Amino acid sequence: MGAAVTTTRTEAPGTNTAAAALTVTIDDLRRQLTEVYRAWGMGEAHIETTVEMMLYADIHGIDSHGVGMLPLYSQWRGEYQLNMRPEIATVREGPAIAVLDGDAGLGHAAAHAAMGLAMEKAKSIGLGAVAVRNSAHFGAAGAYAMLAAEAGLIGIATTSAHHEIIVPTFSAQAMFGTNPIAFAAPAGRNRPFSLDMATSTVAVGKIVIAQRHGRPIPEGWASDGGGRPTTDPDVALENYMLSPLGGTRELGSHKGYGLAAMVEILSTMLSGAIYTGTKAARRPDAVHPGVGHFMLAMDPGAFREFGDFEDDMDDMIDALRANRPVDPAQKVMVAGDPEYRAAEERRRSGVPLPAMLVGELRAIVAECGAPYVLEG
Amino acid sequence: MGAAVTTTRTEAPGTNTAAAALTVTIDDLRRQLTEVYRAWGMGEAHIETTVEMMLYADIHGIDSHGVGMLPLYSQWRGEYQLNMRPEIATVREGPAIAVLDGDAGLGHAAAHAAMGLAMEKAKSIGLGAVAVRNSAHFGAAGAYAMLAAEAGLIGIATTSAHHEIIVPTFSAQAMFGTNPIAFAAPAGRNRPFSLDMATSTVAVGKIVIAQRHGRPIPEGWASDGGGRPTTDPDVALENYMLSPLGGTRELGSHKGYGLAAMVEILSTMLSGAIYTGTKAARRPDAVHPGVGHFMLAMDPGAFREFGDFEDDMDDMIDALRANRPVDPAQKVMVAGDPEYRAAEERRRSGVPLPAMLVGELRAIVAECGAPYVLEG
Known about the structure:
Two copies of one chain form a homodimer. By secondary structure, chain A is of the alpha+beta class. Helices cover 40% and strands 15% of the residues of chain A.
């Protein structure tokens, strides 16, 4: 992975911050993250898992969920008293299901353990589901669904979030996190089908980009403080109220709202995590966010003759890619294609880090006393 | 249910069809459906299940999926050689999963059996999933998810369809049915959370209504023959190409497209059903549509202490209903609320049948020699 690439420095034009934008190798990024977590006191057993789950996002172009989260993790470490040496405990277990307690740590290691356990059950009896409570942000949901798909299983991963941002249809209050759903399924000659989607119309990042460019946002992305659709990115970012997928009632926002609630039920109610929408009233004392995850794995080999599922997946994927496109220049894609393309590019050329993030990483490293390895 | 109601005849103003609109009691509708299926030669064991699953839709205001389907079933009975006396077979079974073969019948009885089996497994080991192949239209997906919720379980139901209508993002070809997802979860003092959504932005019925009123449709509902968004209901109904949830690329149609594909994978690839998107090339000989379903049931009592899940569900549902609304006249709803309201109304006042449907029902009854019971 990126063996021939070296970390390169790029001057960020038009910025006068101390740091410049960088493109770093995956290996360097892995080393830097490892050093920070070590300095933060994370147990060695969890460092590798946490770093690999974060790198999944950076490698696959999901810039909002990899190293870009480290400044927030740094802030939350104090604010939420994240436990850097959690003992992840199995609090309930049967042949098909289990519940894990994340012991107030970050979410990556707990979610990784949960999907691993669900996969064991699926390999044994065709199906397994594991819920996690007392956890926190786990990076990209797709990383966990893909653990299953890479092992020949169907994987589903969902998570709650500790900050409400999605606004129900007809409401003027945010009541859910971006509550993502990831679904991955193996194919034969094709890479796995890999869907990883927030149940909001867009991520906050897209509104930030519109703001930077001084462009209006489409109606259906976000609302103003009164719950009415806004096209002004400044208003959207002041209120932090995202529309559920569908955008407006007319275009089916009640479906996106329903999906966000479904994710909350699977992640929070099933595990016994804290529901952010009522936290202030019900759990005002809770310091740790108490996020919940849900992982399900299913073995196609238990349902079909060996190879038949994968053949049918290839058949569908090939047919979709061969679709007549609206614009000949933009071929029809299959879920996961943009991420696979990014991974190919970044394994070859490295991961670009914007100047602001480089500055934040340098500050984090300086603060915790870890070695800084990104600029040689 | 509707004991005090009598079937009433209403003149449909402005129509000169032979039949007039009717409002019928649920009991009369049950009797009429039963008589038709008996005349069609359906086995008595399947008649009750099929009729109750259809009535779920009529009672809950889902007019597109109940008795309104009978004219199409009548047509498909010949066209697709629907087997009226199918022997639903369990072709694979383990402690957590099973695969059923619907024996080329209608889908209601097979899907009902599949959810029943998934529920048995969930009650035994917390989780069960059953896939069905060689089936056909099963009515409203929500009917099956609600079987689980009424028994205190979480239920998920999906189905493929035998006619492609959803167009992938960037594509000019329909590649999936309306591929619905239903998810239901029990609460305590509240009725179950009950989401039942097509993965298209809207149902065809909504475009038909716009056409009747001579109104344009919003961009994001459907596309023209070239795959470009159209606002003309005539163009939309000529091409029968619906947008996935999200509507346009800018508003996240790739997510709706991903969900439609996920439903296809669960319903078709996992069961070994026929994928409509490649049927012409791969299974040109198949007469029966070979639709697939997927049913999953999960027992919250296996994950949580008794009653805790239901308490947390009530907490969330109450908080959502208490949300500050954008418009004080339109309160925030929870998935299932519109259907519960319709059920209350229809149990009291009966089920309205438009004049055109009454005419079609009379023709079906006359053709098969069943007694006509709707107009006393």
